[in-house]
Amino acid sequence: MGNTLKGKTVIVTGASTGIGLGLSRRFAAEGAKLAMVARSADRLERVVSSLRSEGADAIAVSADVSDPASVQDMAAAVVKVFGGCDILCCNAGIYPSANIQDLTPEDWDLVNNTNSKGAFLCVKALLPYLKASKAGRIILTSSITGPVTGFPGLTHYSASKAAMLGFMRAAAVELARDGITVNAVLPGVIETEALKGLGEAFIESSKQLVPMHRLGTPEDIAEAALFFASEKSSFITGQGLVVDGGQTLPESPDCVLPPY
What we know:
The chain is of the alpha/beta class.
């Protein structure tokens, strides 16, 4: 284990799978006291047990980030065990697909309440403890989809991820006097369990759009988040870091050179 985050308490939401699990593993490897948050209690307990067997100081907290009462209970549970919070990673998110003509107000609210409102609720609940920290950090998992690119069937998701960046900028200014930085990671196509469920054809076609000719991994996102969580980024706030292997750079797919 490293010591970059030794003595720091980190909360990761959406921690039981995908990017959230990658974040958790990386932070644990750097000595953090880790609170892993997710709705699925059973799966969360399994991954926390696995990390503990590897020496991590980790706890599982089941919570729904779209529910204010549940988020308050989560914050209280973390503080009861670890005494506070230094780094908050608002990573929980969902992305069901639906075309605009089929999209219902309930569909819209479900995605936005989880993705963007959930980030706000978590920040609000943990803010007293982030202010008390000597190095408060808020890290949002946004996306290239919405802030940079568009994808049919994901208007509600795109809106939620763009909203996170608007929240980030205003919060960065508001919380700067408290010594809290607020930044975001914008992943491209990341190879997670959910992505694998879309099939090999989709994965291969996605790789063709990336100049580096591979998909990102949860570990790639975790390294970017670790930078924002560390002292190395102490003078950086209100910034979004795109981690996409160059996917958003070409003017057209024809610009992507084939691999050697």
